[in-house]
Amino acid sequence: MSKAQDTKNEALRITETVPEEVWYWAAIGSILLSAGLKISGRDNAAIFVGQWPPTFLLFGLFGRLLRPSK
To answer: What is the pLDDT of residues 2-25, one digit of tens each?
Structure first.
């Protein structure tokens, strides 16, 4: 098996073990953290953290697509 396939399988295994609600709460938390950073004047950090929610939501969606019966 190739290294790329091993990496893919490991990513799938990790994603499947995390409940999808965790991904949604992570997205909400990162939005709140980004807002807090923006309010405190840390604009660059706020932009960086503000880019995380779509990734978390995609992981949640990915988990749902992998396990549609759950």
So the answer is: 887 788 777 777 777 888 788 899
Q: In angstroms, rounded to a whole number, what is the distance separating the alpha carbons of residues 9 and 56?
A: 19
Residue 67: phi and psi, rounded to 5, are -125, 65
Do residues 66 and 15 touch, judged by C-beta distance below 8 A? yes
User: Which residue type occupies 18?
Assistant: V
Closest CA to 55 of 24, 14, 19: 24
Residue 11 in tokens = 């990513």
Say which residues have a Cβ less than 8 Å from residue 67's Cβ, sequence separation at least 6: 16
C-alpha–C-alpha distance, residues 3 and 26, integer Å: 29
**pLDDT higher at 1 or 28:** 28
Question: Per-residue pLDDT averaged across 47-62, rounded?
Answer: 90
